[in-house]
Amino acid sequence: MSKEAFSQKQIDSYKGSTARLNLWEGAVRSGKTFISIFRFLKALKNGPSGLAMIVGVSRDAIQRNILTELCSLVGAPVPTPKATQLNLFGRTIFLVGANDERAQRRIQGSTLAMAYVDELTLIPQGFFRMLLSRLSVTGAQLFGTTNPDSPFHWLKEDFLNKQDLDMKVYKFKLDDNPSLSQDYIDNLKREYTGLWYKRYIDGDWVLAEGTVYDLFDEEDHVIDIPPGPAEYYVVGIDYGTSNPTTFTMLGYNKKYWPNVWMEKEYYYDSKKHNRQKTDSDYCEDLQDFIKGKVVRCVYVDPSAASFKLEMMRAGIPGIMDADNDVINGIRFVSKIMANGTFKICRCCSNVIREMQTYRWDEKVSLKGEDKPIKEHDHQLDGMRYAAYTHFQGILNSEFSEDDVERIYQDVFNVQSDLPSFFRDDHSTQNNSPQMPAVGYY
Fold first, then answer.
1. Which tens digit of pLDDT belongs to each residue from 31-71?
2. What are the sequence ranges of the domains in the chain?
3. Start-to-end CA span in the chain (Å)
4. What does the H/E/C string look like for the chain?
5. pTM of the model
6. CATH C-level class of 3-191
7. Per residue in 100-119, pLDDT tens?
8. Do 3-191 and 219-422 share a fold?
9. Quick one: fold of 219-422?
10. pLDDT band per the 50, 70, 90 thresholds, residue 302
11. 140-159 residues labelled b (16+ CB within 10 A) or e (exposed)
C-alpha cells in the first residue's frame, strides 16, 4: 500500500504511538480504526514477547470491527465467530468480549505484552482498569479507539483529560480519512446537526442521546459579546449547600437581536474548593456580581429561605421567588433559543457545558413522566428561573400593562418606571413615584 493511501494524521499517529497507552478518538468514518489496526500489527510483529489481547464490547463486535480487517491485511484466515484466540507472528492473541463488569474474571491472572481495545467508551470502567493491570510485561502497550461520548465519561475524565499519563491521544475528523470521497463526506455532514454533528463529525465530547436541550449548538446559540447595552438585567439564583450555588445574569433590550442574552455567570462548588460559604458570603458575592448593572429582579430558588432572608437583611432589592415549573420552564427556554430570541455569551462556560450534558431521566420516561436527571443543571436552573419567571409573559405577550404595574407595586411598594415596550404610542406616564433602578453603581 502506498504512502498516499494514508493521511498525514494517520502517518503521524502510526509513527508517534510509542507510549504505554495509545488512543485514537474522534469522528465516525475518520480512519482511526484502520490506522490503529496497522499500528497494532506492527506491535504484534516487533513488540515485546508475550501474550496479546483484543477486546470489544462483544465477541461479535470484535469479529465485525477488527478481525476481518486485521486478517485481510496480513492474508490470514479470519477465525470463526466462536473462536476465543488466534495466532499471528507466532504470538497468541486472546479475543475477549466485555459487555459488563463481570467480564473482569475472564482476564484475571493474565500477563500481557499488548492489547487492542475497540470502542473504548462502551467497555466497563472496572474491566479497563483490570486490563491495564494485566499489561505487566516490560514495554507493554495498549492501543484503543473510540467515538466521543459524554464529557463526563470515565474515559474522558480519568484518562483523556489527564496530562501526567504515559499516553498518546490522536483526534480524528472526517477529513482525516483519505479513502472517502468529498461527496460522501458532504452528504454525511448534512445528515447530522447540532450535538450529533459535534459528536460524530467534529469528534467532540458532548452528550447527544437524551439531552434536554437537544437543539443547542454553539454555532447558533453562543455569541462572543452582547448585542448591545441592556435596558435592564434580571438575575436567577440556584442556591446550594452541598451542591454548587450559581448566579445567572440575563440582559434585555427590545432594540437588539437577540432581545435576551445571558451575559454573566457565577459558579461556586464548595466540594471542589473544600470550603463551605455562608449566606453572608454569598450575599457579598451577589453584590459584586450585580455591581454597576441595572437589575430589575432577582429570582431565587423558592426553597432557599435562609438565603432570601439574608439578602433582605443585606438590602438587596427586587427579590422574588422563581417559578420552578421545570417542564414548562425548559419548554420556554427551548422555544426562545429555537426562534433566536435568546443567546448565551461565550464567557458563560458553565451553562454552555451544562447545555450539552443535561439529560432526561430515561427510566422515568419509561413510566410516562418527563423529568430531567438532577445532574449538571445548577447553572441551567438559575438561567431557567430568570428566563421563565421574568420573560414568559413579556415575550409571549401574556401580561397586560396593568399586570406589570401590579407586579412591580407588589415587589417594590411603588409605581413602576414601566419600560416603553409595554406601552403603545398613545400611552402616557402617570405622575406616581418612580421605581428606583435596582443595582449597584
1. 999 999 999 999 999 999 999 999 999 999 999 999 999 99
2. 3-191, 219-422
3. 70
4. CCHHHCCHHHHHHHHHCCCCEEEEEECCCCCHHHHHHHHHHHHHHHCCCCEEEEEECCHHHHHHHHHHHHHHHHCCCCCCCCCCEEEECCEEEEEEECCCHHHHHHCCCCCEEEEEECCHHHCCHHHHHHHHHHCCCCCCEEEEEECCCCCCCHHHHHHHCCCCCCEEEEEECHHHCCCCCHHHHHHHHHCCCHHHHHHHCCCCCCCCCCECCCCCCHHHHEECCCCCCCCEEEEEEECCCCCCEEEEEEEECCCCCCCEEEEEEEEECHHHHCCCCCHHHHHHHHHHHHECCEEEEEEECCCCHHHHHHHHHCCCCCEEECCCCHHHHHHHHHHHHHCCCEEEECCCHHHHHHHCCCEECHHHHCCCCCCECCCCCHHHHHHHHHHHHHHHHHHHCCCCHHHHHHHHHHHHCCCCCCCHHHCCCCCCCCCCCCCCCCEEC
5. 0.52
6. alpha beta
7. 888 998 898 899 999 999 99
8. no
9. Nucleotidyltransferase; domain 5 (3.30.420)
10. confident
11. bbbbbbbbbbbbebbbbeeb
For residue 165, which amino acid is it?
A: L
Q: Which residue reads 466521543 in cell numbers?
A: 148
Place of cell 399586570: 403
